[in-house]
Amino acid sequence: MFVADLLLLLRYSVATTSRVHPVCVLYLNKSFLCTFFFTEKKKTELCQELSLQARDLRFQHSTSLTARNNCIIIRMETLKAIVTLNNLLVFDFRGMGLERWLVLELAPQLASQTYSLPFEFRALEAILQHRVNTLQTRLNEVEPVILDTLESLVDPKILSADRSKLHVLLQNSKSLSELETDIQVFKDSLLKILDEDEMIEELCLTKWTDPRVFEESSLGIDHAEEMELLLENYYMQAQELGNTARELKGLIDDSESVIFINLDSHRNVMMRLNLQLTMGTFSLSLFGLIGVAFGMNLESTFEEDPKVFWLVTGFMFLGSGLIWRRLLSFLGRHLEPTLVIHFIFHTLLFIFNCQIANVFFLVDTPSLEKKSERWNKMIILSV
Amino acid sequence: MFVADLLLLLRYSVATTSRVHPVCVLYLNKSFLCTFFFTEKKKTELCQELSLQARDLRFQHSTSLTARNNCIIIRMETLKAIVTLNNLLVFDFRGMGLERWLVLELAPQLASQTYSLPFEFRALEAILQHRVNTLQTRLNEVEPVILDTLESLVDPKILSADRSKLHVLLQNSKSLSELETDIQVFKDSLLKILDEDEMIEELCLTKWTDPRVFEESSLGIDHAEEMELLLENYYMQAQELGNTARELKGLIDDSESVIFINLDSHRNVMMRLNLQLTMGTFSLSLFGLIGVAFGMNLESTFEEDPKVFWLVTGFMFLGSGLIWRRLLSFLGRHLEPTLVIHFIFHTLLFIFNCQIANVFFLVDTPSLEKKSERWNKMIILSV
Amino acid sequence: MFVADLLLLLRYSVATTSRVHPVCVLYLNKSFLCTFFFTEKKKTELCQELSLQARDLRFQHSTSLTARNNCIIIRMETLKAIVTLNNLLVFDFRGMGLERWLVLELAPQLASQTYSLPFEFRALEAILQHRVNTLQTRLNEVEPVILDTLESLVDPKILSADRSKLHVLLQNSKSLSELETDIQVFKDSLLKILDEDEMIEELCLTKWTDPRVFEESSLGIDHAEEMELLLENYYMQAQELGNTARELKGLIDDSESVIFINLDSHRNVMMRLNLQLTMGTFSLSLFGLIGVAFGMNLESTFEEDPKVFWLVTGFMFLGSGLIWRRLLSFLGRHLEPTLVIHFIFHTLLFIFNCQIANVFFLVDTPSLEKKSERWNKMIILSV
Amino acid sequence: MFVADLLLLLRYSVATTSRVHPVCVLYLNKSFLCTFFFTEKKKTELCQELSLQARDLRFQHSTSLTARNNCIIIRMETLKAIVTLNNLLVFDFRGMGLERWLVLELAPQLASQTYSLPFEFRALEAILQHRVNTLQTRLNEVEPVILDTLESLVDPKILSADRSKLHVLLQNSKSLSELETDIQVFKDSLLKILDEDEMIEELCLTKWTDPRVFEESSLGIDHAEEMELLLENYYMQAQELGNTARELKGLIDDSESVIFINLDSHRNVMMRLNLQLTMGTFSLSLFGLIGVAFGMNLESTFEEDPKVFWLVTGFMFLGSGLIWRRLLSFLGRHLEPTLVIHFIFHTLLFIFNCQIANVFFLVDTPSLEKKSERWNKMIILSV
Amino acid sequence: MFVADLLLLLRYSVATTSRVHPVCVLYLNKSFLCTFFFTEKKKTELCQELSLQARDLRFQHSTSLTARNNCIIIRMETLKAIVTLNNLLVFDFRGMGLERWLVLELAPQLASQTYSLPFEFRALEAILQHRVNTLQTRLNEVEPVILDTLESLVDPKILSADRSKLHVLLQNSKSLSELETDIQVFKDSLLKILDEDEMIEELCLTKWTDPRVFEESSLGIDHAEEMELLLENYYMQAQELGNTARELKGLIDDSESVIFINLDSHRNVMMRLNLQLTMGTFSLSLFGLIGVAFGMNLESTFEEDPKVFWLVTGFMFLGSGLIWRRLLSFLGRHLEPTLVIHFIFHTLLFIFNCQIANVFFLVDTPSLEKKSERWNKMIILSV
């Protein structure tokens, strides 16, 4: 029988009537090979056969693991199974992506003879392993995406966070939270059993029918002890997954802080640059006013002197440059708020001095050479 | 008897005097149908009938579940009930929206014969189911609103958060907190019983009167064990609700971070654009100053040369453009704060060079062709 | 005896010497009325009378409840009391606002015969009730202030948070933290007793002297069981207070996030408006430069043509408007940082095109009609 | 013997060789006075004398309290001590600031006869008291500094946080964290003993040698019970310290939120003011363009009419004022982003209307009176 | 045999076939010296020799410590070891950096005769010590880097956070999280044993073969008690590491808040400075409009009066200065948003007053002296 045919059979052969559940029964035949067949049964039939209550077959909680009347009833999200002494029944397996696992992985795993453990141990181990693998797969899907997204978001060179990446991060962060909850629920369901010795013993189905199984083994280990080891093993695997998920959550938080500091830093740098340019514009406006004044259609008596044009033009450009340099050096030295006011009045004084100097110096043009020297000194002193 | 009439009867038939409590009594008649009648009783009468203390009928805590003197006293927020061996008494049910539930759901649920459990089990199950349903309903109301609001708030395209949606979010976040507390209180009240085997046994009223009920059942399950399963079932349902609520809280926190990063990113982008325009305005102001200078009513000796107009105008526009391009490329290359100062002095040097070039080049107009070539080279070099 | 007189008496009759403690003794007289008198005793006298150690009367911890040598020693913050079989002694009650409670509430409560509980039960209940009431009162004071302040702070219309309200919030948030601690300490002190059955039994003073008190009661309830119920009742009341306080804390945190998002949103909106105006100013500066150019005292050969004035003026206003509109539509369409650069060079190209068009079109005025058509097309195309 | 001499002796008399430990031995002499002498012993000698293992004298953990072979071995950070039945040995006390405490406080405390407790109780109490006092002192140092710093940082009037105060806050916040850890470690070490009755009994050294000590006391209290009370007392004192520290941490967090809201509010207010001034500058630029247009050296045909000067000047100032008022009222009414676009196109329309009105109205000056009326109406309508 | 040779031998002598594990066996020879040899064994051989199951040799979890069939199976991350009564087997030691430790530290430690503890105690102690040392080393690597980075990041003088340092911080913060998890896992694995007395006894291998070992010792200490002390010692060392790591995490969080406040403060100071300059630019634009008005080619009738030039120029500069001073003092006094509007209309009024004064005063030039006085008063009043 080919696997592909089997999978096809599995998918279509069983009619889906509402009250009838598709069941996959796996059992070990006499040559210790795992055989399986697909059937469909009514709930009531199953209850009678396994002498369980209808309630037990409802699998109410998303994750549960209980022993009831010599059966182990397991639900791990989509996987609903009942383990008896010799059979493993898997319910409602279709449309859940479980077919491949059932045929290709579960059957060989149950048949493997490496350690001669009773059937229910092997079935339980296969199912718990499948659950941990599922959780691990989900973590493996989420982890690299989050790490990549964070890597590109905390890149110090970027000015603004890429919004599509934020969306990806948010989606994966949500998946991570759900994964954390599922891991926690899985851990809790195992811990509940590990905390009560009675419940562990109930899970050892063989113990009540064939207590001498373990006596044959050389190591003299107990049924319950073996079961505890098995459950503890998967508990610790889940805990390792949980630790990784928690660290990832912490990394997201830390990275968000770094993104905020990055964005804030960028903003401060741009604001400083903006402030420096505003200082320049202010200086140009201040000295441009002189030009506007001379541009008025009013008589200023200097109209005819060709030297005055160059003097005023030079004063405008030079004055702007000097004021700007003072403003920049002020910004560079300290950004203390209390000092700003002092600076501004200091600067105002300097400006009015310059203007007065300008006016005086324009009034008597003959002594122009002398004045210009004095004026240069004045600028040097105040700068 | 029609349901509508019944509901009407339920609402108006019982006079509300202050000391008299409306009581709805539900019991199974001999044909195992659930019958109910409405009456009103004084507290003292009830105490005597049930041999309880007055204190027990005060239902002090919002959520409690205790066994007292062969009665189970339950309060689940608005629902106050006492379960005896054969009766279920519901108190103060009016105005709480409980009428419909009493008549349409509770009565059939008590009468259902699917599993032949004693009366108190069925009553307790009905009440706990009602409580979990109420909590589930509240979560179902809050969850989609929060998800929708967050969906629209983290939309990367929006510039500013919609304040009305923030209000909705805050309101629902508050409701979610209250729901979380209620779920926790419900879980705690169940856990308190689950942790003590004595209390579980006290809840099994039938055990003390008719201990053989369960012996008849085929499964040989114990009273206390059955009760533990029942309580545990609802405990786990509440835990699943709690997990969902906690995940939702986490999603709100994560989304808030994303909203902040979004708003900050938008701001940085706008600030960069603003800075680019400020650079443009600065460039125009700087070279506009030349125009202002030539606009002064002062003699510059170039007044009559028609070429000078085009040269100066060209220089103003071209100079502005070049300076702006330099500023933009500087911004694009690096935003390091230490480099800004270097850049500015570098630029200042360039500007003064240009101005000097301008002046020299205007002074001797004959050699205009040569100069313009040299000047072009100079610009190319400095850009 | 009038209450007012009594309160006066209470306040002034007892001289306050340092070593002498004012004590209020309450006891039930034979007609089951609560009588009380005020006295002052030395610590050593008290120790001998109650056969306690000096250490027991030091009331070291702010909240404690212990049984010692047939006395219950209670301290609840300001209230220090010792309950014996027949008496309730309250210490250092003056200046603590306890007088009114002692006379008006405690005495009647102790005398009430509703349930015939032993004296120590009633005394303990009165004191615990008083403690819970005090905590409830503090919560009731803090809660509405916080809710009101938050309500006005999260108002989406306000531009900046009212700083005086922030101060109020901070103060009440601090009070809330202290209240939470006090509730927790109260809960812990009750839980310590509830966790140990021995300690509960020690609190039942009557049990050791008159164990048959409860046998007389119809309900057959035990001393210790009754005490457990009593303590548990107040434990749960404290827990409800604690839950409310915790929810309030959560609400403050959530509201702070909303306030931040609100302020950030306002800032983004203002920044967008600012950017739009900066765009306008930039456009006006750019085309104003043309005006400045024609304002220069240089010969442009168009001086005499009256049409040129209207053409250039129109070009300036129309050009500014068009550029601004383009900038605004660019801002509206996308705020992507990478596109800004493309946009700016695109715009620069458009501007230079316009200027070239302008220049060419001014050079040959005869073909003005044709050119203006072509120019209009060019503008339409580039917009 | 003078205390000063003693302290001097204590500091210098004992030579510090590497292998030899300075030991201060305190014991009660027969007249029940606490005598002490200083000596130095080798570790091996000590081990033999006290019959302890070398490992026990290594005091590996910073906080530990264990009973070993009829000795209580205590380490509380710098204080290393061993309590035997009759002696208290303090090790390595020099350079730790312990000398003063040893001489002035510990000795009298051990000798005090107020309650006749065995020696080891008094020694243990003295050491635990010293530890709690040390923790209390550290909290007392940190608390007022933090409260003061926060008080000045949350001051709503300040524009920017004082950076030196932030540094102080950070330092003290770190100290507080370390203090919290130390309190927790102290609590844990006491709790470990309180949780196991055996360990408590081991601490009662007298019990094994002279079990009748307590029988003599009037109160009939047990050794172990007394020890439990003693440890519990210091546990609760530590818990109160821990609560205070935790509240302080919470206050720092709350205050930081308030500081952020304060800074954000200030920024929004400044941004609004900036926006209002940008609006003013924009209005002035817009109408200044008219002035620039008329300043061009181009023929506008109005040059000679003196009324036009006043009309245009008035229009410029009045128009700027009106536009600014409209912009301000727009800002005041609503800051909705969607409305900004509508507003801007509305305003643009208004401006173009005004300009057209301006142009038309300037063209035919005769009908000036009529036009001006119509124009006024238009302005009124559009405002 | 030289150590270097030995290390070389260790590295190359053992061929690495896939199924064969390199094993280092350490044992005490008869002269109580620790001898070791390197060998390679198949898993199945090992299982048979030690009578363990194959599963036990898979070392599935990263950190585990279990007793199985008179062997202690230990895995501490890279270190996989099995302790038997007389041997210590270390597996897969190559390429893990364990060689040096094996030869130089482990061997002498096992041989040391200071306290005559059984072999398994000494082996366990050596391995746990190695694990704690590894964790300590990792903390020592991370701690100074984090402290340095934070120190430079919270520096109040810096305007923007150094992005490369943020990256370093993020990397180390991640390492710290991983370290915290590892410490927690190590603590949990020890705690699991410490919580169950049975498991402690299982670890004492000698107890089952030679129970009289401890009876010989003078101190009469028990096997299990000794083992508990040993494990507890390393548990507490791990806890101290954990506390340090937790404090470091807290410090990072606190520092991030301080960095945010720092950046925000800087931004506010820059914004204030920007606002002050915007105020200046606004003032200059406002009064520059007068200059632009007079620059228009329109007849203002003042063209010929030389005094008017100086008056208007003075008015422009003086007016700008006064308005700016008013704006600055307004900013200094209060930043309340409601007052801004009042201020602006107040200022507008003042400006229009000035302009009206200006216009009136320019109209009749003869009474210029009088007007100027009145005008000065007006300015003084309004300022």
Structure write-up:
5 copies of one chain form a homopentamer. Chain A is an alpha+beta fold and 383 residues long. Among the domains of chain A are: 1-114, Lipocalin (Beta Barrel); 264-382, no CATH class. Chain A contains 12 helices and 6 strands. Chain A has helices at 3-12, 43-50, 99-111, 119-153, 163-194, 197-203, 205-209, 213-216, 223-295, 306-333, 337-363, 368-382, and strands at 20-28, 34-42, 63-68, 71-76, 79-83, 87-91. In chain A, strands 2-1-6-5-4-3 form a 6-stranded antiparallel β-sheet. Chains in contact: A-B, A-E, B-C, C-D, D-E. At the A-B interface, helix 5, helix 9 and helix 10 of A face helix 9 and helix 11 of B. Chains A, B, C, D, E: Residues 1-15 form the signal peptide.
Oligomeric grouping of the chains:
homopentamer
Structural Rg of chain A: 42 Å
Helix content of chain A: 55-70%
Strand content of chain A: 5-15%
Shape of chain A: rod-shaped
Distance between the termini of chain A: 97 Å
Q: How many runs of DSSP E, i.e. beta strands of chain A? A: 6
SSE run of chain A: HEEHEEEEHHHHHHHHHH
Number of helices of chain A: 12
SS-derived structural category of chain A: alpha+beta
Strand order of the largest sheet of chain A: 2-1-6-5-4-3
Largest interface: A-B, 73 and 60 residues
Q: The biggest beta sheet of chain A, please?
A: 6 strands, antiparallel
Q: Which stretches of chain A are poorly predicted, pLDDT < 50 over at least 5 residues?
A: 13-18, 336-345, 354-369, 378-383
Protein name (chains A, B, C, D, E): Magnesium transporter
GO molecular function (chains A, B, C, D, E): magnesium ion transmembrane transporter activity
Subcellular location (chains A, B, C, D, E): Membrane; Mitochondrion inner membrane
Pfam families (chains A, B, C, D, E): MRS2-like
